[in-house]
Design brief:
Elements (H helix, E strand, L loop, with lengths): L1 E2 L2 H6 L5 E13 L3 E5 L7 E4 L7 H6 L5 E10 L7 E12 L3 H4 L11 H6 L8 H23 L3 E2 L5 E2 L11 E2 L26 E3 L4 H11 L1 E9 L12 E10 L3 H22 L1 H16 L11 H10 L3 E4 H9 L2 H4 L16 H12 L3 E7 L15 E9 L3 E8 L4 H10 L8 H5 L8 E7 H9 L20
Parallel strand pairs: 1-2, 4-6, 7-11, 13-14
Antiparallel strand pairs: 2-3, 2-5, 3-4, 5-6, 8-10, 9-10, 11-12, 12-17, 14-15, 15-16, 16-17
The structure holds 4-amino-1,4-dioxobutan-2-aminium adenosine-5'-monophosphate and magnesium ion.
The site of 4-amino-1,4-dioxobutan-2-aminium adenosine-5'-monophosphate (4AD) has 22 residues, from β12, β16, β17 and α15.
């Protein structure tokens, strides 16, 4: 008797063997055919029961959603649509699912809207779509670790609770154990955080970069891959309050090297899923095709999902300076026809997602790396260029997504960094340890942050970030 997952059964060469599987009933038809799934693959295995010899009460309990334990013989299938099936010799219902209740949930086998699926996020992984997304997500995260491992990086666990605001944007969730109703106060009447758990104000991290820098300056090449938190009130299809970020950081590497690394890395992980997640990708490709059909003709993508993924592999990312991009945008049709919500008039403005998408999808028609941004729209730690007004920043823009990566060469000169912090009112006491890096053997170093969910969006073709993470955290939403 072979106990195995359905994925393993499909890979079996020998037929007519006794097998044993456990899974959930997807559907049961003609009192005879169970479509069984156990999550190991998108594909269901057909289990054929002999209803005449089966106890009627037991037969009734085989319904969509029920957990069952099946033993039988793996044979070549008589019917169309599958190579093998199981001729059931014994069936045990491990957990019932009342059809009456199931009919009100997303478990009933029919099409459901993604919004409806979000309302039942504890069940949605049982749907084909979410099964496929989550297997792909897992595969991508494995590929991330494999890439860095193969390239001599050390995996570094950055702290989740910190006292600093790495991005300087003030979008942090406070971490405290003080009594919200009756907090200790200072003489001037403010909350006295010196009495708090850590003896200071702390928050959930927005990025592990600053800590990763300290380790890069010891181990050479490191990367983080962990949850990060942003209390920005942006209710968009691309923002989460809790998301996973991958942040490599490399000593002695400049911005050029950083771009090369990011491009090579993105291509590797995409190639990995193209090779290893064939079934799930094929399913998601069909899903996307259906979704595209419901869009007006001029908004439809001309490429299928796998074509898009291959397109990224086959083309060099276009490297363009911020200044060049501004010129292109200023002279673009949508800008002249006042189609942009935020018109581009002068150098120095921050780019909005509509501009990023214009550059990628309409102008260059390939992934774009924008670099050398104005200093005052970027974080304090980026290295100042000789012109005194731009910094060695880079953002990677992807079709359908916009910004997928943000990174930079770091300011390694102590005095320049101190000036920058002073100008932005960032107290030196708060980041004394970060400044120390520039005192003891400072060196050129660079890194970037990849928003993991944005990568999963790209690889799955999903258009809402809430649908590529098991439990999305967004403003006004932390159910489950
Ligand atoms: O551009 P960001 O803010 O850069 C940093 O945090 C740097 N410390 C990274 C570094 O250099 N080590 O964020 C990096 C990426 C973005 O490009 C985006 O993909 C993603 O993180 N991201 C978000 N993803 C989902 N929801 C949000 N609210 C996000 N904010 C940023
Ligand atoms: Mg950014």
């Amino acid at each position: 008797m072979i106990k195995s997952t359905i994925a393993e059964l499909f890979a079996q060469e020998i037929k007519h063997i006794d097998v044993e599987v456990k899974g959930w009933v997807k559907s049961f038809r003609a009192n005879r055919f169970i479509a069984l799934n156990d999550g190991s693959t998108l594909r269901n295995i057909q289990c054929v029961v002999d209803f005449e010899s089966m106890d009627e009460a037991l037969l009734k309990r085989i319904s969509t959603g029920a957990a069952v334990h099946i033993k039988g013989s793996l044979v070549e299938s008589q019917g169309k649509g599958q190579d093998v099936e199981i001729q059931v010799t014994s069936l045990e219902v491990l957990g019932d699912a009342d059809p009456e209740l199931v009919s009100k949930t997303i478990l009933q086998p029919k099409r459901h809207s993604l919004e409806f699926l979000r309302e039942q996020a504890h069940l949605r992984a049982r749907t084909n779509t979410f099964g496929a997304i989550m297997r792909l997500r897992s595969s991508l995260s494995f590929a991330v670790h494999q890439y860095f491992h193969n390239n001599g990086f050390n995996y570094m666990h950055a702290p989740i609770i910190t006292g600093s605001d790495a991005e300087g944007a003030g979008e942090m969730f406070r971490v405290t154990t003080l009594d919200p109703k009756n907090p200790p106060l200072t003489k001037s009447g403010e909350v006295d955080y010196s009495k708090d758990f850590f003896g200071k104000e702390t928050n959930l991290t927005v990025s592990g970069q600053l800590e990763a820098e300290t380790y890069a300056m010891a181990l050479g090449k490191v990367y983080t891959f962990g949850p990060t938190f942003r209390a920005e009130n942006s209710n968009t299809s691309r923002h989460l309050a809790e998301f996973w970020m991958i942040e490599p950081e490399v000593a002695f590497m400049d911005l050029e090297g950083n771009m090369d690394l990011a491009e090579d890395f993105l291509k590797y992980v995409i190639a990995y899923v193209l090779k290893n997640n064939v079934d799930d990708l094929a399913f998601l490709e069909k899903r996307l095709e259906q979704e595209e059909k419901s869009k007006p003709q001029n908004e439809r993508s001309s490429m299928s999902l796998t074509e898009k993924l291959n397109f990224v592999l086959d083309n060099n990312f276009k490297r363009v300076s911020y200044s060049e991009a501004i010129d292109i945008l200023r002279n673009s049709k949508p800008n002249k026809k006042k189609k942009f919500k935020y018109p581009i008039n002068e150098w120095g403005v921050d780019l909005q997602s509509e501009h990023e998408r214009f550059l990628v999808e309409k102008h260059f028609k390939c992934p774009v790396i924008l670099f050398d941004y104005p200093a005052n729209i970027k974080a304090f730690y980026m290295r100042l260029n000789e012109d005194g007004k731009t910094v060695r920043a880079m953002d990677i823009l992807f079709p359908g997504i916009g910004e997928i990566v943000g990174g930079s060469q770091r300011e390694e000169r102590l005095e320049v960094l101190k000036e920058k912090m002073a100008a932005l009112d960032i107290p030196e006491e708060e980041l004394w340890w970060y400044l120390d890096l520039r005192t003891y053997g400072t060196a050129v170093h660079s890194g970037f942050g990849l928003g993991f969910e944005r990568l999963v969006m790209f690889a799955t073709g999903m258009s809402n970030i809430r649908d590529v993470i098991p439990y999305p955290r967004t403003p006004q939403n932390a159910e489950f």
